[in-house]
Amino acid sequence: EREAVKKETDEASLKRLALIEEEINKLEKEYAEREGVTEQLKVENPTEWVQKMNNIRNRVAETVCADLIFA
Hints:
Layout: H1 2-34, H2 39-44, H3 46-70
Helix pairs in contact: 1-3
């Protein structure tokens, strides 16, 4: 019985994690599109693209963590 509860909890946690990862990916794409961080920029100026994507990833992480903590 205890193992069944643990398995159920683990499955729920994995589903929640998958939803969070989906949200992170969606937000990163939205931010990149809105800010013009494109594949063309990646080809033409990889350093700038990495800087901008790192900035986007950091902001998305802050947003998602704040939502998880304060929601």
